[in-house]
Design goal:
By secondary structure, the chain is an alpha+beta fold. Helices cover about 30% and strands about 25% of the residues. The two termini are about 30 Å apart.
Length: about 260
């Protein structure tokens, strides 16, 4: 894969724009927190609120004005221009069930992919006011300060996070259990927040299945540029075309041990 031509593409400027989008989404979500959070149920049985749709529509309008030549892949509306070099990937509220029930582990995910590969990512938690920003070529930041994943951790001492075990099929659940029993302990329900915690060293591993591109694209640059490793369960780099599985580790060495446990049988 060729790298973006930085004489034509200023990644720091694009990162600032992505943070502007996160400011926009955060303001909408915080204004809605005190409201009664009614929801509809989509065809896949997942819930969606009017706020999910409002946030994504707002971000799309801003992108269409600022970057009309870029594509957009979002959760709530039809994708546009996925064959273009630059594609923005949006999850307006990652963790809608947590949002509906008032549990503050949800966040907005914003990514920019170049030729299908995420090169910029933002995790924004509008309640805790924590924001992770990962941009290829620069250290990952949390709230403007550089962070790094934890290195030198062996699997038996590693802490593990999983957002929700329900999407695991039989083989995935068996692989997850092989990994879980070899780690120190597991915490559930962190969602996108858990991947930010891998990036800043508070958590060693985060793993999920049943995902879409808008669930994991923002996570990849954040973990990778903090010194960690992130891939599908087979160790392949994440792209907008990857499958449903994602796993992140605090170091490439730990990631190798994790992937050994996750080989589907």
């Amino acid at each position: 894969m060729s790298k973006p031509d930085l004489t034509k593409t200023d990644l720091p400027a694009l990162a600032r724009f992505a943070e502007h989008l996160a400011d926009q989404s955060g303001a909408i979500i915080r204004d809605a927190i005190a409201q009664r959070r009614s929801f509809d149920t989509k065809s896949d049985r997942s819930p969606v609120t009017e706020i999910d749709r409002r946030v994504e529509a707002s971000l799309r309008r801003a992108l269409e004005v600022a970057h009309p030549d870029h594509g957009i892949l979002g959760e709530e509306y039809a994708s546009v221009g996925l064959d273009r070099d630059f594609v923005w990937v949006l999850d307006p509220i990652d963790g809608t069930k947590a949002f509906i029930t008032g549990i503050p582990t949800f966040g907005t995910l914003i990514a920019l992919a170049f030729q299908g590969v995420p090169i910029l990512g933002v995790i924004d938690n509008p309640v805790t006011r924590e924001r992770w920003v990962g941009v290829d070529g620069s250290p990952t930041q949390r709230n403007g300060e550089a962070v790094a994943s934890r290195k030198g951790t062996v699997l038996s001492d590693a802490t593990l996070g999983n957002g929700n075990p329900e999407p695991f099929d039989v083989r995935e659940r068996a692989a997850f259990e092989r990994l879980r029993v070899d780690t120190r302990w597991c915490v559930y329900g962190g969602g996108c927040h858990a991947y930010g915690r891998v990036a800043d060293g508070a958590l060693d591993i985060s793993i999920d299945s049943g995902l879409d591109a808008f669930d994991y694209c923002a996570l990849a640059p954040i973990v990778r540029n903090a010194g960690g490793a992130i891939s599908d369960w087979e160790g392949k780099p994440l792209t907008i075309h990857s499958g449903r599985r994602c796993v992140a580790s605090g170091s490439p060495e730990l990631h190798e041990r994790v992937l050994e446990r996750l080989r589907l049988q």
